[in-house]
Design goal:
By secondary structure, this protein is of the alpha/beta class. About 35% of the residues lie in helices and about 20% in strands. The chain is globular.
């Protein structure tokens, strides 16, 4: 018998079906999903437009490498033009967030001819070697031969002083995810933008988790008034189908020559169909506005919780963190027993990443069960 290697820790559930904001286990029990596959199912499980687009694509062709153009990719690019920042008009598709970060760093190294990288305490950018180098948590990084990265203090404008003439890239999450669901301050991002412009470094915004409507705007950075040179996106944009993207300014991509990067499955027809269906859902259903509305209600309810275990609440839209005075693990397990799936962000933060279509009833249930779990 072949055994699966588990790096994440098994939650004790076998999930067999998902629809909208709910999933069912092999015993037939229904769960309200505020985990959503680390945020990937923000458009809900089996979003109709995404499923329809993939099923239609399955009827024609499944495999096209980036050496060729497919009809599916043309439709996908046309859809992305509706939502991407105007200056980020060069796109390359990958399969996961960590791959997108790897390419973003490669582009910065080639565009600048430098090797220095600045990241931030609490950051999470992935687990492959380049992205891992820019990830803060030592438990992920220890024991690997990594890029030399300087880590500044998140939300401290003086961290811009780490940027110098040897800096190729500054990489930052507009809203930190695993680092505790911490929104960035506009002044902080503006200082990073200034320092990058002054020293000729590349400013990378990692929107893999915060982007595509989750925080109440299409891109979390857009509410800060600061534009990046490169942006990574993933998770939600494919409606749960594995796909990611790097979007970059003209001057960034000019240095990379043919053959210096590639991907067998990046931008494959099924992934492009999924992104097309995802963008159509985002626009037709007013996803960012819905996330802002329901996220506001959920945050208000979390702030009203009366428990000595709660230290505070933070986040934006439907990317929320409840900071506790203890390890969040027992609370997460308690919620699972009560039919709510959630996840942690660091050791003490309960992270909630529900889909945009949650209802007032769902919000009420989440709050009720969190209250019960905190009291048990």
């Amino acid at each position: 018998m072949v055994s699966l290697i588990s790096f994440h820790g098994f939650r004790g559930l076998k999930l067999v079906r998902g629809e909208g904001q709910y999933v069912w286990d092999s015993e037939g029990r229904r769960y309200l999903d505020a985990h959503t596959g680390h945020g990937a199912a923000f458009l809900g499980h089996r979003p109709p437009r995404v499923v329809e687009a993939i099923e239609e694509q399955l009827g024609s062709i499944m495999v096209v490498t980036p050496s060729f153009i497919s009809e599916s990719m043309e439709k996908c690019l046309h859809s992305l033009a509706k939502i991407l920042p105007r200056e980020l008009n060069n796109v390359y598709f990958q399969n996961s967030g960590t791959e997108a970060v790897e390419l973003a760093l490669k582009l910065a190294f080639k565009a600048t001819g430098r090797k220095g990288v600045v990241s931030f305490m609490g950051s999470f950018h992935g687990r492959t070697l380049g992205s891992l180098s820019a990830t803060w948590n030592p438990k992920y990084r220890d024991g690997y031969p990594l890029i030399d990265v300087k880590f500044g203090k998140f939300n401290d404008p003086s961290s811009a002083d780490l940027v110098g003439d040897d800096t190729a890239a500054v990489i930052v999450e507009p809203v930190q995810g695993e680092g505790g669901v911490k929104p960035s301050n506009p002044d902080f991002l503006r200082e990073l933008r200034r320092a990058c412009d002054e020293h000729g470094a590349v400013l990378i915004f990692d929107e893999v988790q915060s982007g595509f409507g989750r925080t109440g705007s299409v891109w979390a950075h857009s509410t800060r008034g600061v534009e990046p040179d490169v942006m990574t996106a993933g998770k939600s944009m494919g409606g749960g189908f594995p796909v990611s993207m790097v979007a970059a300014r003209d001057w960034i991509v000019g240095a990379l020559r043919g053959g210096e990067h590639g991907s067998t499955h990046g931008g494959n027809p099924l992934a492009c169909a999924a992104v097309h269906g995802g963008v159509e859902t985002l626009l037709a259903d007013g996803v960012p506005a819905r996330a802002a509305e329901m996220g506001g209600k959920l945050m208000e309810g979390l702030e009203d919780l009366r428990s000595r275990l709660v230290r505070g609440v933070r986040g934006e839209g439907l990317m929320l963190g409840l900071e506790l005075r203890r390890d969040s693990g027992p609370i997460i397990r308690g919620l699972q027993r009560r039919g709510i799936l959630a996840l942690r962000a660091g050791r003490t933060v309960l992270r909630l990443l529900p889909p945009y279509m949650i209802t007032d009833e769902d919000v009420g249930r989440i709050l009720e069960e969190i209250g019960s779990a905190l009291g048990s």
